[in-house]
Specification:
This protein is α+β, with helices and mostly antiparallel strands and 266 residues long. It folds into three domains: 93 residues, no CATH class; 43 residues, Roll (SH3 type barrels); 85 residues, Alpha-Beta Plaits. Helices cover 47% and strands 21% of the residues. The chain is built from seven helices and eight strands; from the N terminus they run H-H-H-H-H-E-E-E-E-E-E-H-E-E-H. Strand 7 and strand 8 form a beta hairpin. Helix 2 packs antiparallel against helix 3 and helix 6 runs antiparallel to helix 7. The chain is elongated, with a radius of gyration of 27 Å. The N and C termini lie far apart (94 Å).
Length: 266
């Protein structure tokens, strides 16, 4: 089948209608996104659920509008279906295999939900918040405000770690180091006070401060590992900063020193 025979299956008169459908789909998708953002700000405890619903709705809008546009520009008959299933499918199928794989992977992500919009995830060396799950790709915004676009099919073969798994709150881990000759009990008390007095901590969940003796840079040191849940994943870095500043100030007031190589007289 040559190009002339293929072109006779197209309906030029349907191009304006198909264009209008695509434009309407883009407008509806943007209006939907803006409305859901405002709704998420009004109900912060349901923000992640609202974003997840928004991803599914935008996915549906683009998929249905694409099918509708195709119906206007193609003469959908048995002859056309046979032609598409034959010559056209073979000629463009290989070129579109990655794109189709990403679309199928996007559907799997929405159904299986290894992560959701609003989750803090680690993938292929990148860490950040999932901002959008689209037809072809996932957009991740890292903590440096750099957007990373990842094809959906990548998530079917590589490991992805979600820090909050659809929840608003998330466990945060912070390490502090002091010398082995310091007042460890007082240092642990300072870390605990800084952790539980932060305005970003969620005390409805358990928190802890563990103490370990480790070798760092060829000398012994005491590590105090603090773990607590932040109220909202958006405050992750603000929580870490707040606690760190409080701990450092507390160490300075109590005279608790960082690790150092100790020189003892024999």
């Amino acid at each position: 089948m040559d190009n002339t025979e293929i072109l006779r299956f197209f309906k030029p008169g349907g191009i304006p209608y198909a264009t209008l459908i695509i434009i309407l789909a883009i407008v509806v998708s943007r209006l939907l996104s803006n409305s859901l953002v405002r709704l998420g700000e009004r109900f912060p405890d349901k923000r992640l659920l609202i974003h997840q619903i928004g991803s599914f709705l935008r996915f549906s809008v683009y998929l249905l509008s694409g099918l509708a546009a195709a119906a206007f520009v193609l003469d959908v008959s048995r002859e056309v279906l046979l032609a598409i299933g034959g010559t056209v499918a073979v000629s463009i199928g290989f070129a579109l295999k990655d794109y189709v794989a990403s679309i199928v992977a996007g559907l799997i992500i929405l159904v299986d939900r290894p992560f959701q919009v609003g989750d803090r995830v680690t993938f292929d060396g990148y860490y950040g918040e999932i901002r959008n799950i689209g037809l072809r790709s996932v957009r991740l915004m890292n903590l440096d405000d750099t957007q990373v676009t990842i094809p959906n099919n990548k998530f079917l073969t590589d490991t992805v770690a979600s820090g909050n798994a659809g929840a608003v709150e998330m466990l945060i881990q912070m390490d502090f180091w002091v010398g082995i000759d310091q007042d460890v009990a007082r240092a642990k008390e300072i870390v605990g006070e800084a952790l539980t007095s932060s305005r970003f901590v969620d005390l409805e969940f358990p928190w802890s401060v563990t103490v370990s003796q480790l070798i760092q840079d060829n000398y012994f040191a005491i590590r105090l590992r603090a773990k607590a849940y932040v109220l909202d994943v958006r405050f992750e870095k603000a929580f870490e900063t707040d606690v760190t500043e409080r701990v450092l100030a507390g160490f300075a007031d109590a005279g608790v020193q960082p690790p150092a190589i100790l020189h003892r007289n024999s």
